[in-house]
Amino acid sequence: MIYTSEEEIFNSGIISQEDEKILIKDIGLFREKMVNDFVDTIILGNSVHLKKFCYWLIYQAGLNCGIAPSSIQGLYEARGKKEIGEFTVPAINLRVLTFDLARAVFAAAKKINAGAFIFEIAKSEIGYTQQRPLEYVSVITLAAIKEGFCGPIFIQGDHFQVKAKNFLTDKDKEICQLEDLIKEAVRSGFYNIDIDSSTLVDLSKATLDEQQKLNYEVCATFTKYIRGLQPEGVEVSVGGEIGEVGGKNSTPQEFYAFMEGYLRVTQGIKGISKMSVQTGTSHGGVVLPDGSIAKVNIDFDTLKALSEIAQKDYCMAGAVQHGASTLPNEAFHHFSQIGCAEIHLATQFQNIVYDYLPLPLKEEIYAWLQENCIDERKSDWTDGQFIYKVRKKALGPFKREIHCLSHDLKDKISSALEKEFSFLFDQLNIKDTKELVEKYIKPSAIEKKKEDFLREDKELGELEGAD
Fold first, then answer.
1. Which residue in 193, 274, 269 sits closest to 228, CA to CA?
2. 155 within a domain of the structure (yes/no)
3. pTM of the entire predicted model
4. For 129-251, where are the alpha helices, taking DSSP H only?
5. Residue-wise pLDDT tens digits, 378-410
6. Which CATH number goes with the domain that contains 434?
7. Residue pLDDT, tens place only, 199-210
8. What are phi and psi of 161, to 5 degrees?
9. Inside any domain, residue 383
């Protein structure tokens, strides 16, 4: 059901408004009768105003249920001081069926009392999946309510990336565009931001400092900007990156060159809490001519060494592994053992959803890709390689159709993903981390008024064209 007015929402008798607060009279009924309708209204509704109003109601409902977007900074600081044991935080990108997949994440987490997991979305994904930050936060909050999860939820801006070509052409414009996205994200509840200025690393320079200089200077610029934006009482967790994913493997010398330069220009402010590095993976994996994924030889020795440097020399949580969801199952138990702080997982979840799509819908999507993404096809790609590489681009244009799949089919997809998340959570050793989260994280229950959401969203609407 799609809500058509504010009055219709309150006529349910399940929620009421008192001044600037929303009160839920019966959590059980709200969970059973209203949560799915809010999701439908957000995904399928046509009223921009009503969507904005729903975002405010959902945020308030989350607070009613003890759910608040929060920063993972306190947990990562404890890790940097070696106060907590070995586990690797999964950072999960949800590109499609976000409500259903987030429910599967929360269900898997509840089974093992896990609290140390992150939902994230990259700058590029915001564009091609058509999920602005407020929508992403709201849908995940609804999923937490639906599954009866209580506590902080960590939502992260992944790969908030500087485009090197644009930066070198018009530095100020590129920085302003990314600052606009950061502002939108932080205001929406993204209290974890990964800055990716590794695209500016220039390996042709003579010294490591010169190679990393633009990278650490730009990362420092955005760190300072974030610190000026963050709400009172919130220390946003910021990440840096020294090597572009898919490029050459990172080295300890590059790590030191970045950090020494970064610390020189960020004196007096809280710096990054983790560092993304390159160890042999690529986003989405390497696609073979038949459309299958090549086996990757990940450099665990490098990942371990860089995590040790991060902790020992800079009191950071450790190194971060990107592009990992398509690794073989036998690889995942290594990450917690070698001290990897965080691992980013995305493509495999999208792949599982595609496996379940009805054939007519899949054929329609693939035909759309052939018509609209053909310019991205490389001359030596097979059809299988082309479809695999670009099919993520159809998730936004076909968002409504995929959302409208039958409940039975979506339940099957959620069940398959819940098994996948349970496996990963076990391998990454996050069982019983909910207690650690409760110890080290103060939930960020920021008071927000309805007018803040409406005014804020009007400003954010100008960013719809952001990549």
1. 269
2. yes
3. 0.93
4. 133-146, 164-169, 171-188, 208-229
5. 999 999 999 999 999 999 999 999 999 999 999
6. 3.20.20.70
7. 999 999 999 999
8. -105, 140
9. no
